[in-house]
Amino acid sequence: IASTWSYFGGSNAILKISGAVEIPREMDPQLHNVVEELAIAAGIPKPRVFVINDTALNAFATGRDPQHAAVAITVGLRQQLSRDELAGVMAHELSHIRHFDIRFAMLMATMVGLIVFACDAFWRVLRIGMFTGAGRRSSGGGGKQGGNPALIVILVIAVVLAIIAPILAMMIRFAMSRQREYLADAGAVELTRYPQGLISALEKLGACHEPLEVANRATAHLYIVNPLKSAM
């Protein structure tokens, strides 16, 4: 059930969690024109275009296939890029779409997100159960009380999920290897025929040390640069 939901609804969930808002062409015609030109060059449908209202510099693509894809860019990055640099970044993301990297990344993000959510939910239920159990013991007198089997089961599940979640996040970082990024960079140069635009954009991205507030460990691998980096 989770996999089916991830396949058909994962990208919309990721965009919503990331605070991405779809913008019409009239709000940013240059961005739409760049994405449309690159989509034509890549031979794929034009993806939906989103912006994230954050000053951090970042961007990502998501979706299950080129016919159901979207690209998102932060306001901070959009404001700092020239047209050639913008084309380099968008070409990188469209290369991920063309190579179907977005499907794997989306499924991993939503599945890890579900595990993280379940982990938090079990811990919350455990805390509530322990609090209400303590309240019943204090109001019921000093009778002999045994452990609540349900709370013990919840505790075990919560601990297991707490262990699994960071391991999965690490596995995703390994799976989304640098080779995929190198191929996306090569694809961007192929689409733009101007490597300097991407190089200049990556230099700006690398120089930014501001973390992206809406990013989390389940979605971090989607972005063109690590969104969780600490400010320096």
Mind explaining what this structure looks like?
The protein is an alpha+beta fold and 232 residues long. Strands 1-2-4-3 form a 4-stranded mixed β-sheet, sandwiched between helices. The longest helix is centred in the middle third of the chain and has 39 residues, at 101-139. The chain contains 8 helices and 4 strands. A hairpin with a 5-residue loop joins strand 3 and strand 4. It starts with a helix and ends in a 25-residue tail after the last helix. The chain has helices at residues 2-17, 29-42, 75-80, 83-98, 101-139, 149-175, 178-192, 195-207, and strands at residues 20-22, 48-52, 59-63, 69-74. Helix content is 63%, strand content 8%.
Give the secondary structure arrangement, pairings included.
Elements: H1 2-17, E1 20-22, H2 29-42, E2 48-52, E3 59-63, E4 69-74, H3 75-80, H4 83-98, H5 101-139, H6 149-175, H7 178-192, H8 195-207
Parallel strand pairs: 2-4
Antiparallel strand pairs: 1-2, 3-4
Helix pairs in contact: 1-5, 2-4, 4-7, 4-8, 5-6
Judging from the principal axes of the Cα atoms, what is the shape? elongated
| Continuous helix count | 8
**How large, in whole angstroms, is the Cα Rg?**
22 Å
The run of helices and strands is HEHEEEHHHHHH
**Strand line-up across the major sheet:** 1-2-4-3
**Amino-to-carboxy terminus distance:** 42 Å
DSSP strand count: 4
Share of helix, binned: 55-70%
Q: Tell me, rounded to a whole number, the average pLDDT.
A: 84
